[in-house]
## 1
Amino acid sequence: MNNPDFLITGGGIIGTAIALTLKKKNKKLKITLLEKEKTIGYHASGRNSGVLHAGFYYTPESLKAKFTKKGNEFLTDYCLTKKLSINQCGKLVVAKDEKDLDQMKTLFERGRINEIDIHELTEKEAKELEPRVKTFKKALFSPKTSSVDPIEVLTSLQQDAIKEGITIIYDQKYLGKSKENTIKTNTDHFTPGHFINAGGLYADKIAKDFGFSSDYEILPFKGLYLYSNEAPGGFKKHIYPVPDLRNPFLGVHVTVTVDRKAKLGPTAIPGLWRENYKGFSSFSLKEFLSIGKREIELFFNANFPFRELALEEIKKNSRYYMAKKAMELADHIYPKNFKTWGKVGIRAQLIHIKDKKLVSDFLIEGDTFSTHVLNAVSPAFTASFPFAEHVVEKFNF
Ligand SMILES: Cc1cc2nc3c(=O)[nH]c(=O)nc-3n(C[C@H](O)[C@H](O)[C@H](O)COP(=O)(O)OP(=O)(O)OC[C@H]3O[C@@H](n4cnc5c(N)ncnc54)[C@H](O)[C@@H]3O)c2cc1C
């Protein structure tokens, strides 16, 4: 067990999908997956919106564009076959003014090139699908966007992995590696044939031990959700604004969950340490000082609108402000119906240090001994299986 062919660090959706994909390629491989937490889906893979995205946001040459459509099809089939919860509700993208219509055109065009099932609707047609929707003249409709329960999906995949003979060890934290490529954890040592880093919020730190991620660093962005207390069925479709395409976040939207309830969010508030979920939990002074310094630098000098983003996002700590933003998307939104904050999720967003820019696409680095998944940001849950195929295609079995 301590000298597997592949040792994978990180038991989120990416580590799990890579383990399953390797095993599918070669049943004989010995694969061990390490997860530092005691519970499944404790980080992004269990704290996301649970939306299976369709793939029309992304520029056609990007890995995101390549993987999202296929990933959506894979997980949709998986949920239907395994009888896991899925709400195939579809999604509307709405405009608030003439300027948004231009961006909407860009999204439609990207969707067309990426061969996504996407439709331009009039305001009236959009209202027929979702009577509460508000839009300026036009809307986009994506029928293939749906909702799943991410922890249910991850649990099912890990059960599959165990059945396939993959060893999954919880409460097992990667701590470092020796010059001889021995991997040290909190309780053990491993000497794998190949090491795969799918460490989410810590992927950059782990990669640096192997001489990678030298140009990059992860910045945490907090995603807050505000739940509606309306009865299920209050919204028929997800409703998203046209995003600011200068950054990778989609803007506060109405998400319909698997149980047909609605939630607003997520925000993209700059975090102050990596696991900055609530209060001072998991506080790290070292992280606070380095992340704080980086954010101050970006606030005054960035090559993307960080200051604008930070100032806007911080306001979303107020549920009144969140409700106000949602009023731009839908009718009959009242702050009294949105009182319950949900579980916070944190995006492990990579920045290019010298360029002072957020990295928008997925990024993987590595060599013959190690592979590092550095920017598994949204929609990496949706895209996880084609993403894993891409990671493993360099290996000869
Ligand atoms: C607020 C929010 C909303 C999102 N919404 C969507 C969405 O609707 N649709 C979508 O497709 N994507 C969405 N995403 C993105 C998606 O959740 C992530 O892209 C995906 O979960 C990344 O998976 P991962 O396995 O890389 O990361 P994680 O789930 O974070 O897994 C990494 C794992 O590595 C472990 N780890 C870290 N360090 C160590 C160590 N030293 N030793 C051992 N283990 C370690 C962690 O404990 C963690 O479990 C969202 C993300 C957020 C934060």
## 2
Amino acid sequence: MNPSFKLFRLQQIDSQLDQANNRLAEIARELAEDSVLSEAQQSLQAAQHANFTAENELRQAGEAVKAVRDKLKENQDQLYGGKVTNPKELQDLQSEAEVLTRQLSALEDAELEKLAASEEHSAAREAAQANLEAVIAQRGAESQTLGAEQAELQTEVERLAGDRQLALNGVEAEPLALYTQLRGSKAGMAVAKVTGDSCSACGMELSAALLQAARSPSELSRCAACKRILYAG
Ligand SMILES: [Zn+2]
């Protein structure tokens, strides 16, 4: 039997091992990745801060309205209370009432604006809170799925490592060294199957002599173009 048969079997196992190990590395990265979570946390923090500021401004606007309203009430009590009778004083009170009424109207408008802003920020804060909760829930589900896949892959890697030990039986040192070297230099693919009369790895059409050599029971042959070990099947 051509020695490439054993190397081809080894190649199949190593390719599966590569795939499993790549996926395991990817899973480890995904499990460690928390940018979505920290983004949601930062958004909530910003929304909480904005909401706090808006509520403060609303309270201050309310206090300003109340202060002017109190002043106006005092003014009206004096104006219509009957205690002040001096016409000059009454006129001053009348002027003050006009100024205070204008002030009150402007402050009430400002308070309404602050109220609308505060409601908006409060809704934004609630949305940010809900988003964070959704991210945490989704992450939990994702972690569970990834964890299950990780466990399966680890079992598969162990099984493949066992298969690899068996496949190494009877592989001589020299072909194994070549195989290992080609695995390193040919993106993990050291052995190419002959498909039709071409190398399946690079597509090169193989000469009749090379095709015959690939079927030789004793010698290893290599693709003239990509230099991989040929396995004729
Ligand atoms: Zn080739």
## 3
Amino acid sequence: MKFTKISSSHHLCLKKLLPELGKFYDGHENAKFFDQLINKDKKDNNGYFTIKKEIWSALGDMDEFCGFVCLNYKRGNTVKIGPIMVDPKYRGNGIGRFMITSILKKLEKEKIRKVYATTSSENVPACKLFQNAGFRLEVELPEQYRVGNKEYIWGYFFESPTVIFLNKRSLFDPNSSEEGNLQVKDFNPETDVEYLQKIIKIIKEWHDDITPNFLRQIIDATNRGLDFETKGKLILVTKDINNLPTGLVVAAPKRGGSVKIYPMYGNTPSIEGMIGKLRRIFKEKGYRKLYTFVHASDDRYIQQLINFGFCLRGTILSPYKSGHDLAVLDLFI
Ligand SMILES: CC(C)(COP(=O)(O)OP(=O)(O)OC[C@H]1O[C@@H](n2cnc3c(N)ncnc32)[C@H](O)[C@@H]1OP(=O)(O)O)[C@@H](O)C(=O)NCCC(=O)NCCS
């Protein structure tokens, strides 16, 4: 069995396997998903956390195509594996296992810090595949991609972090402002860039690889509408009576009904106002839930979000920087 970068002659074989993923993910559209995978093979220009994608294939002794896996290189020196698929004719023969073992060898050589994957709780073979390869279940997210099932987040470290850091900075501003005098507005690239920069500076404490390009990519994404396929984003800014910003949130709709709202910065009334507006906007568009990340040691912010109705779902270990764990919270809308 060979493990090689996919050749374009196998793109059609890959495409034929994709419809099966629709079983686990609402909103799965095969042709669009294929374009996203294949045309982003070199460089992912739309994802602000994804740096590049690579697709590898497993070939049999006669060079027959047996399966493929997509590697998504992320900021913070991590790689997300997925999708991984084996042609139904060849399943149950260790090919999935062979691909995972090959990936781990390759990524260890590349000095990648963490490898992770997500699977639907209903996808028993995929869950087993990661569990048996040594991945650890970190978080369970209910109805993340589909009603009635959970999404599992699996993590694998070549070397576990030896020190766990407490947060020095917070996305929660303890200062208060008059709730009635706040307005939640759309991000204005003319006036709000500096404020966005300030918030990105805060998250740099627990994110590696935040370059000036990161800021540009977020702002550019606000011009792409609110389509998860084009990775469009919405930025809201809360302003006080003097038109000064008191809070900001970046919202990114995802496949299957969830909206990532991260980073979300502000004091209590600003956050409350932004969540209220996000709920209205995304509920109308048919989305089910909002989810966000908070530094796992930021108890005050976590409690504040719980007070707003969020549920704490667990902790992702060092997702963006070694030793900085993030709590995951979600809110059904
Ligand atoms: C998940 C998938 C890639 C596994 O590929 P595979 O080549 O059949 O898997 P393997 O034969 O290497 O088996 C790997 C592990 O999965 C488990 N497994 C495989 N098929 C299974 C099944 N039908 N039921 C339960 N466990 C199963 C085995 O326990 C095995 O662990 P072990 O080697 O320690 O015993 C394959 O089932 C597939 O393509 N599924 C459809 C696509 C998909 O859902 N991908 C995941 C989404 S990201």
